[in-house]
Amino acid sequence: MGEKKIRNSFIEGPIPPEKIADSIAAHRHKTGIGGHAIFLGQVRNDLIDGKEVQAIDFTTYREMAEQKIAEIREDIFAKHELVCMHIYHSLGIVPAGALCFFVFTSSKHRKPAQKACEELVERFKAEVPVWGKELFTDASYQWKELKG
Prior knowledge:
Elements: E1 10-12, H1 17-25, E2 35-42, E3 47-48, E4 51-60, H2 62-79, E5 82-95, E6 99-107, H3 110-127, E7 130-136, E8 141-144
């Protein structure tokens, strides 16, 4: 199918709510769309071994990650009847309570958008090389398993 189009799927720091609102608003002129599905991932302030997570520092091997995202996009577009798909993940430090992952799928009917969104989130988590270092309030840290 030729060379995959590589997009910039990463945002430095938290994903601003305005990015989500702007993405939704940009679709108002696409009148063939009947359903959207959105997944928003947020950093939790988990308590691990008595230590509270204050932020996650996300990192990736960007070239490899963007290539894998392009493959996943292509697979999901081929499998589901989508009009569009957007994927954004944070890099760098994201504080607890802030958004770090945004997936937005659109289709003529709701079910393809919903199924594609769920599959996209699961595949991203399982296949894309993104790592997170949990930063604790006591200045210690640990690497986080990002699967699931």
